[in-house]
Amino acid sequence: MPMKDHVDFVVAQWAQAMPSVDASSMEVFGRMARLQKHLERRRCAVLEQYGFKEGEFDVMATLRRSGAPYQLTPTELYNSLLITSGAMTNRLSRLKEAGMVEQIHDPADKRSYKVALTAAGLAAIEKAVFSHTDLQNQFLAPLRIEEREALAQMLKLMLAKLPEDVDPIP
What we know:
By secondary structure, this protein is mainly alpha-helical. It has seven helices and three strands; from the N terminus they run αααβααββαα.
């Protein structure tokens, strides 16, 4: 007997309530949404251990993956994370207060600066990234490597069809 889940229940209800509606897309998007909610809840708990909220982790991770010297302008950061400059300002203020980032002013232009990881920020984000990826790998554990690769490619294909999902950083 095939395994049933909550999404199967919801789709069956729609089939009964409105048989003319093709609710088959809910089998994919309903499960994606449920997975995301479970992941988000657990991710918040993991990141809390390092003093990060999800948005702050994203800023720190973006700085870390940019490579040494782990510096970007606020504009590069908010473009990369697809958030507003106001949201970035709030995240940077919190991270600066916590001693995780610092501002490096451009000597040629006093109005311009870069955001850089501090030594404490670098140590914290490196630990957090290991915990974060371990959590994601736990979610993917039921899948064989070929299934993971196929899923990644299918999601990539779907994102490629969205004109607003263009990589903002060259």
